[in-house]
Structures are given as structure tokens and as C-alpha cells.
Prior knowledge:
Layout: E1 2-8, H1 12-25, E2 37-41, H2 48-53, H3 60-72, E3 75-79, E4 98-99, H4 102-113, E5 118-122, H5 125-129, E6 139-142, H6 145-160, H7 164-172, E7 181-184, H8 187-190, E8 200-203, H9 204-215
Parallel strand pairs: 1-2, 1-3, 3-4, 5-6, 5-7, 7-8
Helix pairs in contact: 1-9, 4-9, 6-7
Amino acid sequence: MYKLGIIGGMGPLATAELFRRIVLKTDAATDQEHIKTVVLNNIDIPDRTEAIVAEGKNPVPYLNQAITDLKKLGVEYAIMPCNTAHYFVSKLDFQGLKFINMVDETLKYLKEKYYYKKIIVLSTSGTKDANVYQSKDLDISYADSFTQKALDRLIYQIKEGYDLEAMAIRLKKMLTDKDIVYVLACTELSLLEEYLTGYLVVDAMDVLVLKTIEKLGYKYKK
Length: 222
């Protein structure tokens, strides 16, 4: 039996980073005090953005198979470190697994902390076109079309293994106002968070880590 299952592989490095952060942020003194977790690095899941913007292969059957695999392993909670994949959540059968929704939790966090701020969502074009991040209570917008093309190139180059610090330098050129809250709403962009000091940044992956640890009944290490 596992307490937590990670539907990963979207992409693999982002999946590894999520697990790393969960381990680092769980207040545990021994191996046995950590969260018993299974990580599915399912790289067969088709590209989520392609499915949304270009009628690409449907990822839903693959995501449902991942859920079935977790169910067979006796997982109680499930999380999914891919913002764009959350567009398909309403079509998934969680088979009784308790799903912690990264997008919903991030929107709640933004409403609590930054309800008075202008918010720009940095994401894939799939997340933008599907308007995955939306709230009538927040001043949310996405990158303009020129910046969005640059973001998409950046995200896929991170997947290809380009140097993260070099990618962060390019991303910072897209952050034009230090009074705006920028949401890292792609888990590849989460890999650049440590380089973005001096900006108001909310990383959806960080919110997911916090809420996962809390909801599972563990203590979050500050």
C-alpha cells in the first residue's frame, strides 16, 4: 500500500523534481517518516499541448491507465505534475483515488495571497488556449502571442536537456514588471524557479508540494 502516487513522465525531469521537493519539504528525521510514494514515469503519455491545439493524440486513455496502475498498487492519493494535463481532469476516472488538483490549489493560494495583484500565467500554449487557469476573483492573464511562442520554445528545449541557467536568463527577459505576480504554470518552468530571484513568482509545483504534504497529514518543513 502506498500513501501517494505520482502520475509522471510529463516530463521526466519535472517529475523527478516534484518528488525531490516532496522529500526535501517533508519534516522527517528517518526514512520511515517520509511519505510512502510510487512514481510512475509514464513517458508514453502523448503530448498534452498537441492534443489541445493541434488535434494530437488523446492523452486521456493513457492517463486513465496510469490511474489504474496506481490503483493496483494500493495508492490512496494521486497527483499529476503537468499543468496542461489538468485540462483533461474532468474526463479521468480516478477509481476512488483522492486527487490533489495542482491548478485548483494554486488558484486558491493566489486568491489568498495575491487577490489584489495583476497575475500573469506562464505556461504552454495548450494551457493558455484551454484557459486552464481561470478565476472570476483574480486578475489573471496569459502571455501575449509573441511571448507565448518564446515560452513554448523554452519549455521544449528544457525537455531536450538544454542548460537550465541559460534557459532562466531567457525567461527573465520575458518578465517585464517586478510588481506583477508570475505563475510558473508549467513544471518545466518550475525547474528554473531558483534562478528567478527578485521577481514575484508563484510556482504551481511548490503549491502542489505544500498541499500534498499537508493533505496527507505530514508536517511541511519551512
